[in-house]
UniProtKB/TrEMBL annotation, chain A:
Keywords: 4Fe-4S, Electron transport, Iron, Iron-sulfur, Metal-binding, Repeat, Transport. It comes from the Bacteria. One of its GO terms (molecular function) is 4 iron, 4 sulfur cluster binding. It comes from Plasticicumulans lactativorans. This is L-lactate dehydrogenase complex protein LldF.
UniProtKB/TrEMBL annotation, chain B:
It holds the Pfam family LUD_dom. This is L-lactate dehydrogenase complex protein LldG. InterPro entries: FTHF_cligase-like_sf, LUD_dom, NagB/RpiA_transferase-like. Transmembrane segments: none annotated. Coiled coil: none annotated. The lineage of its organism: Bacteria, Pseudomonadati, Pseudomonadota, Gammaproteobacteria, Candidatus Competibacteraceae. Residues 101-221 form the LUD domain.
């Protein structure tokens, strides 16, 4: 996938001016947050579950090697195979090898962000194997030659008429020449065409939301059922996942299940939770004959013991981006790589380097909504701040910003001067605010006032108010 | 060095450990795996059985499944016939070989059945369920020679026969039954199913019947 994260600011400007995209983002803002809130309100234990999930994931990360080895041993015991991939290139090679071994011409795919992370589709196609996305959203994007802009609603940026156009352009060869305009009809058309693809595929590739150490099981969580057809009908099933997805027991995966769909779509539970343990057993009339799990590291193990370890708790629910005012304004593609929104602003610098992604951890007002809805309580603003610190240390921050920060630091180390300056500043801004209390333009603050008014201070500084409110008053 | 050793080595370095987990810490993790203790079970899943049955029906209905209640197993074929008629399906079904389903008198209800895995074009299937989970109206189905997985996904209509005595409150109780009654390893596939297939990938508007069944019908036997 071509990385456009370095041009984030230009991407964001273009996204703000993109009327169809803005219409599509309206659907997101009107949908997910309200649905999540309703689901949470129905489960009084939700906050306690979040605590338990955070503690569980922390326990797993502290013993990650042990649970991964246990998982591997139990997969093998059921006749499955585990493949360890250090990086994207190794993962692609392993998967290509398995497909070639199976003599595969076509491969059906369930929705998987890990296969986006490793750029699998292009690689398979280059080697003469046709990958077919079967999740409706992913299928639409494949026809349009696009990548997902959201981790669970990949085509959220696409409008109905654009889907009609894509299907009309590509479905003629299946005898579907009429341009459909109703979501129902469009979905039926995709269902019909993809049925034949499921039945013809030699290999089915899915992701895995969880890997269960105790039983050697991979779990997928879906609503469409495409993941199940993908992994049940072909002769070979490959589950591509990453090392931090392992959990100890069925009960632990169940705990995370209670949080995942509620946090993601606001559903009480997904339609299909599918727990797969190995290939077809003696006497089974269906199911794959081969079962492979590809465990990807790709830099995750480097995050252990670092200030970014908490990020490995992520269960990829998308709540952080659904509630992020920045994501809601610009959508996922502006972030320029696979993972958008707050979780992406922490992960992307890790995967493609902070020198390519320095804008991302700055694309936040630190309003904290992401952290407040995260089911595993990842302190996302804090982690973005860590990236900002690294950016500063590496001298990637712009000169003007560094100069401003230097001036502020100089002042703040001289409390008397700092208090005097802030008092003067507050008074001046109050006067500028006039009767309305709002400032429409301000020298050096054009970046703010070009888009919105600056609320003027009410004339007194924090220190003054603090001194007054403390018991006893005074200093 | 293999990918495996490199990854495990890097994990251990990150965790500040020279080698594999050992001693008391390892024993504690092994004990944790054996104990498989439930973490936190919501109060809604801890009520008396009759309330769990009512909750199961309510939650399954909310998930857009339809539920028919019958007094005994002998009444199941007639209930399935009514469902097929109402949905405009032919009185034909592909059924799981499991005795709980294949042992019923389908001919008496005028339904033509075949016990096998599903094929493309099958309109309706009938399968047994291992358990029903009241918490979210979820069915738990197990794959095996008696219950092919394709029956759960390929046909347009999926009918599941569930004994009301097999309804539990939380998911954890169903796992406990599975461990006790079947032991490990788990069946090749355990399916949790809550309502029919759906997608909101076109403009966030929910549509039923994406790739899996368009209708999920539960025949609940007894009370």
């Amino acid at each position: 996938m071509h990385i456009t994260s370095p041009s984030f600011k230009a991407n964001a400007r273009a996204a703000l001016a993109d009327a169809p995209l803005q219409r599509a983002l309206g659907n997101l803002r009107a949908g997910f947050p309200g649905k999540r809130a309703a689901a949470v309100a129905r489960l009084p234990e939700f906050e306690a579950l979040r605590d338990a999930a955070r503690d569980l994931k922390n326990h797993i990360l502290e013993h990650l090697d042990f649970y991964l080895e246990t998982f591997e041993a139990n997969v093998k015991q059921h006749g499955g195979q585990v493949h360890w991939a250090r990086d994207a290139e190794e993962a692609r090679q392993i998967i290509l090898g398995l497909c070639q071994q199976a003599g595969a011409k076509t491969v059906t795919k369930g929705k998987s962000m890990i296969t986006e992370e490793i750029g699998l589709n292009d690689y398979l196609a280059q080697h003469g194997i046709e990958p077919i996305e079967t999740d409706l959203g992913e299928y639409i994007l494949q026809l349009r030659g696009e990548h997902p802009s959201h981790i669970i609603a990949p085509a959220i940026h696409v409008n109905l008429d654009q889907v009609s156009d894509a299907f009309h352009a590509h479905h003629g060869r299946y005898g579907k020449t009429e341009r459909q305009t109703e979501p129902r009809q469009l979905m039926n058309e995709a269902r019909e065409i993809l049925r034949d693809k499921f039945l013809a595929a030699d290999v089915g590739i899915t992701g895995a939301n969880f890997c269960i150490a105790e039983t050697g099981t991979t779990v997928i969580v879906t609503n469409e059922g495409n993941g199940d057809l993908t992994q049940t009908l072909p002769r070979v099933h490959i589950a591509v996942t990453s090392i931090e997805k392992v959990v100890p027991t069925l009960e632990d995966a169940t705990l995370l299940h209670r949080l995942l769909s509620r946090s993601a779509t606001g559903q009480e539970i997904e339609v299909y939770g599918t727990w797969s343990s190995g290939p077809r057993r003696p006497g089974d009339p269906d199911g794959p004959s081969e079962y492979h799990v590809v465990l990807l590291d790709n830099g995750r193990s480097n995050m252990l013991g670092s200030e970014f370890q908490d990020m490995l708790r992520c269960i990829r629910c998308s709540a952080c981006m659904n509630h992020c005012p920045v994501y809601g304004a610009i959508g996922g593609h502006a972030y320029g790589w696979v993972y958008p929104g707050p979780m992406g602003s922490v992960l992307t610098p890790q995967f493609i380097g902070i020198e390519n992604a320095a804008n991302l951890p700055n694309a936040s007002t630190f309003c904290g909504r992401c952290e407040s809805v995260c089911p595993v309580r990842i302190p996302l603003p804090k982690l973005m701040r860590h990236w900002r610190a690294r950016e500063y240390e590496k001298h990637l921050t712009p000169q003007g910003f560094r100069f401003g920060l230097g001036v502020w630091a100089w002042c703040v180390r001289r409390p008397a001067l700092y208090r005097r300056l802030t008092r003067i500043g507050a008074c001046v801004l109050k006067v500028l605010g006039g009767k309305t209390g709002r400032i429409r333009s301000l020298p050096l603050a054009g970046g703010w006032t070009a888009w919105r008014d600056l609320p003027a201070p009410q004339g007194r500084t924090f220190f003054e108010q603090w001194a007054e409110r403390r018991p006893g008053g005074g200093r | 060095m293999s990918g495996r050793d490199a990854i495990l080595g890097n994990i251990r370095r990150g965790l500040g450990r020279g080698g594999p987990l050992d001693g008391a810490a390892r024993a504690a993790c092994e004990e944790r795996l054996r104990a498989h203790r439930p973490v936190l079970i919501p109060a809604r899943a801890q009520r008396p059985h009759d309330e769990q049955v009512a909750l199961f029906v309510a939650m399954a209905t909310e998930a857009a499944a339809s539920v028919a209640r019958v007094a005994g197993a002998d009444d199941v074929p007639a209930a399935v016939a009514a469902f097929l008629d109402q949905g405009g399906y032919p009185r034909r079904a592909v059924i799981a070989p499991a005795q709980a389903v294949s042992g019923l008198d389908w001919a008496a209800a005028g339904i033509e059945v075949e016990a096998r895995a599903a094929r493309n074009g099958d309109r309706a299937s009938v399968t047994p369920a291992f358990a029903g989970i009241a918490e979210t109206g979820t069915l738990m189905l197990l794959s095996g020679p008696d219950s092919p997985t394709t029956l759960n996904f390929l046909p347009d209509a999926h009918v599941v026969v569930l004994d009301a005595a097999r309804i539990v409150g939380p998911y954890e109780d169903a796992w406990a039954w599975l461990r006790r009654e079947r032991g490990l390893p788990l069946p090749r596939t355990v399916n949790w199913i809550s309502g029919p297939s759906r997608s909101a990938d076109i403009e966030q508007k929910l549509q039923m019947g994406a790739h899996g069944p368009i209708q999920l019908h539960i025949v609940l036997v007894g009370d």
